[in-house]
Inverse folding.
């Protein structure tokens, strides 16, 4: 089963929920898809045994064959290739690797070369295998790195995906294909506002979902009212406790020190299994 | 006119609460909410929308079923898997590259402008605000960020504002890059947690790459004083000025619940004092006369 942990708003506790659940349920493959800021390893402390570079493909123009006709420039919707008279410029950070320039080139002057945009790291700890994606700093496109992480999914395991914040393409890329998505929110106006958008996206993508309320006790009751109105299951509440915040700040998953939570995360996982089977 | 971007790397460290407070403290600034896929600034500043624009960030392929001969070439050539088995375009996957249109032997595919969100030009009780809303699940957030910044610039010029303050999004990817190119300074709001530190380091590298002067604010510094010390010494080594250390206070959430900034809700609190002192340091660096006690 594949469960993604997402939020809309950043900093609501996605990674904390993902890691504590991973440590509680066993036979887990945890994929850190928050490739702009991967943080799960800071709580899990795995030993990374292997790394792989993530590449995208970018066009390479053969200057001898190129007749400077400019068809590729005209075709490219992303302004990633510029050919005019003597000049040929490729902007790798704008290229979406769609292959269009090669198709339209009448001189067959375009081939492809690899462009490094990130790294995959593989490690394990306490029965959890972790695959981490990391976008290289200054490279804008997170989606290809997320795709590379998701290629590593082993469906025979309990797969947990730690999603990036937000509700745009990176989020959609991560949650697509999941059997269930857990949205972690906090009971504040910001938490509620971003939860609404995330719910809307998930319904569009067609992934079943449930809610975890983190830092319960702060803020107000509007998130609860919203969940009732929208018929969303609140599967777990984690109270705001200084101890939990402090453990997180030190890089310790709180279920390791507050062991009553292990069972709660196991129950959460069984509930998810039940709901996604519906 | 100067531009300041508030960033964090890690989400939920307090960017928006701080940006909104700056808007209240300032005399005459324009604020721009560039967290376009999860914008929250409006929940504290309550803008009145004066004008809205449709945002067209890309194109979308459309297949005319009456012309389609089901050859499946489009499906075969689409690297984004945006053509499903019924030979329909899946809008959420389509990036509008035009490959399908090019390969279609019968001209059944067209590219149409894709409305991916809305941009707003608004007034708040403290001045002008530029903001936007990306439609749920859409891409092109970087381009929308650029539009929001252009709108903010236009408003600032019109109103002779000295400064645009930009509320950025978490992460280091395309919307973040779009929110820092060409700005005069960035304030990175972090928290004393392992992830806060890790994400701070990545954002500082990004700012360095784009030659943007960085300042740091440690929010909720008292949640882990040892980590706060680590951040302070890290910043000292990297010659990055820490302009504020804000204590944890439940009042920030209480203010948010009633839709106010902390500097309005509890102006005498330690949090508000620290935000005012930060604002004074930042405006001094930027050389703008914007400090309002």
């Amino acid at each position: 089963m594949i469960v993604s942990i997402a939020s809309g708003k950043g900093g609501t506790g996605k990674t904390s929920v993902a890691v504590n659940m991973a440590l509680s349920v066993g036979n887990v493959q945890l994929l850190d898809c928050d490739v702009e800021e991967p943080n799960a390893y800071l709580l899990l402390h795995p030993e990374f045994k292997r790394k792989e570079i993530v590449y995208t493909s970018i066009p390479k123009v053969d200057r001898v064959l190129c007749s400077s006709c400019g068809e590729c420039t005209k075709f490219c919707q992303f302004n990633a290739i510029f050919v005019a008279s003597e000049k040929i410029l490729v902007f790798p950070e704008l290229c979406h690797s769609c292959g269009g320039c090669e198709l339209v080139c009448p001189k067959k002057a375009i081939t492809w070369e690899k462009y490094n945009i990130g790294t995959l790291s593989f490690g394990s700890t306490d029965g959890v295998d972790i695959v981490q994606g990391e976008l290289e700093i200054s490279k804008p496109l997170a989606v290809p790195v997320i795709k590379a992480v998701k290629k590593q999914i082993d469906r025979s395991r309990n797969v947990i995906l730690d999603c990036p914040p937000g509700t745009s393409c990176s989020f959609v890329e991560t949650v697509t294909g999941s059997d269930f998505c857990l949205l972690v929110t906090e009971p504040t106006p910001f938490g509620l506002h971003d939860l609404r958008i995330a719910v809307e996206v998930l319904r569009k993508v067609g992934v079943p979902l449930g809610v975890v309320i983190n830092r319960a006790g702060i803020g107000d009751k509007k998130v609860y009212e919203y969940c009732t109105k929208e018929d969303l299951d609140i599967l777990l509440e984690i109270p705001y406790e200084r101890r939990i915040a402090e453990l997180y700040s030190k890089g310790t998953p709180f279920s390791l020190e507050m062991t009553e939570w292990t069972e709660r995360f196991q129950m959460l996982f069984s509930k998810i299994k039940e709901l996604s089977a519906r | 006119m100067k531009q300041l971007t508030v960033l964090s790397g890690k989400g939920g460290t307090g960017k928006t609460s701080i940006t909104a407070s700056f808007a209240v403290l300032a005399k005459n600034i324009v604020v721009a909410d560039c967290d376009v896929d999860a914008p929250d600034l409006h929940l504290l500043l309550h803008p009145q929308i004066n004008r809205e624009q449709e945002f067209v960030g890309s194109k979308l392929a459309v297949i005319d079923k009456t012309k389609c001969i089901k050859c499946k070439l489009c499906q075969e050539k689409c690297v984004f898997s945006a053509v499903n088995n019924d030979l329909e375009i899946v809008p959420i996957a389509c990036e509008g590259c035009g490959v399908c249109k090019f390969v279609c032997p019968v001209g059944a595919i067209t590219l149409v402008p894709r409305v991916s969100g809305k941009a707003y030009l608004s007034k708040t009780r403290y001045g002008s605000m530029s903001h936007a809303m990306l439609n749920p699940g859409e891409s092109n957030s970087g381009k929308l960020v650029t539009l929001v910044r252009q709108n903010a610039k236009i408003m600032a010029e019109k109103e002779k504002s000295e400064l645009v303050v930009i509320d950025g999004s978490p992460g280091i990817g395309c919307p973040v890059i779009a929110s820092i190119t060409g700005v005069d300074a960035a304030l990175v709001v972090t928290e004393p947690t392992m992830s806060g530190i890790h994400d701070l380091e990545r954002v500082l590298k990004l700012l360095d790459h784009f030659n943007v002067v960085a300042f740091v604010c440690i929010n909720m510094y008292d949640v882990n004083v040892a980590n706060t010390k680590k951040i302070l010494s890290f910043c000292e080594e990297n010659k990055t000025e820490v302009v504020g250390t804000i204590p944890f206070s439940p009042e920030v959430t209480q203010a948010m619940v009633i839709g106010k900034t902390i500097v309005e809700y509890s102006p005498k609190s330690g949090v508000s004092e620290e935000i005012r002192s930060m604002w004074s340091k930042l405006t001094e660096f930027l050389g703008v006369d914007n400090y309002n006690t």
